[in-house]
Design brief:
The chain is built from eight helices and seven strands; from the N terminus they run H-E-H-H-E-E-E-H-E-H-H-E-E-H-H. The protein is of the alpha/beta class. It has one domain: Uracil-DNA glycosylase-like domain (Uracil-DNA Glycosylase, subunit E, 3-Layer(aba) Sandwich), CATH 3.40.470.10. It has a five-stranded mixed β-sheet with strand order 2-1-5-7-6, sandwiched between helices. A two-stranded antiparallel ribbon has the order 3-4. Strand 3 and strand 4 form a beta hairpin. The N and C termini lie far apart (51 Å). The structure holds uracil. Uracil binds next to helix 3.
Length: 208
């Protein structure tokens, strides 16, 4: 039998975070399940008003089975707090739900997911969007932004702008790990300030 290229047939008809998470745990729609420890599904409350979308789980997330729990996640938590955004209103997830990596000595180096892997995983994100019906989707970094807004979308040019889609607003900003990679303390600080400024733009959409 030909290998399944999309998660679509696995998405349960009765949507809840529990049914979705347990169906996604057995996903083999692309080959990343072979090298990832486990599926890392989105996390947060079903009543969350914002979905924050990263690229894929990292090394810590792959081990923990939870998104944004490593260094990038900790930075995101700090930035949300400084932007005055209640963490309970935020659901975090990724475009691709398995960690893609390549060995480098004893380390597992992050590798970008390709279009086939992104396409195979997309039904999970679509189901999360249908279930949560967020006010706003925040794309963290180019992979997330381009998956939602097209290949020609440039985060550097359009960051922090609220774009209207049919059912929810979209705002794209940098990935928190890019701030961690800043070359020195001063640029890390200014990148963090810009990130917080971008996050503040969505705060009014989360009220009432
Ligand atoms: N980077 C991501 O894009 N997602 C995570 O869950 C962790 C790090």
């Amino acid at each position: 039998m030909e290998h399944q290229q999309t998660a679509a047939p696995l998405v349960p008809s009765r949507l809840s975070l529990t049914t979705l998470r347990s169906a996604a745990a057995g996903c083999t729609a692309c080959d990343l399940y072979k090298t990832g420890t486990q599926t890392v599904f989105g996390e947060g409350l079903e009543t969350a008003r914002a979905i924050f979308l990263g690229e894929q789980p990292g090394d810590s997330e792959d081990r923990a089975g939870r998104p944004f729990v490593g260094p990038a996640g900790k930075l995101l938590d700090r930035a949300l707090e400084q932007a005055g955004i209640d963490r309970k209103l935020v659901y975090v997830t990724n475009v691709v739900k398995h960690f893609k990596w390549t060995p480098r000595g004893k380390r597992r180096l992050h590798e970008k997911p390709n279009a086939r892997e992104i396409g195979a995983c997309r039904p999970w994100l679509e189901a999360e969007l249908r279930l949560l019906r967020p006010e706003v989707l925040v794309c963290l970094g180019a992979t997330a932004a381009q998956a939602l807004l097209g290949k020609s979308f440039r985060v550097t040019k359009m960051r922090g702008q609220i774009l209207r889609q049919a059912d929810y607003a979209i705002m794209a900003t940098v990935h928190p790990s890019s701030i961690l990679r800043a070359p020195d303390e001063e640029s890390r600080h200014s990148e963090m300030e810009l990130f917080i400024r971008d996050l503040k733009t969505i705060a009014p959409l989360l009220q009432h």
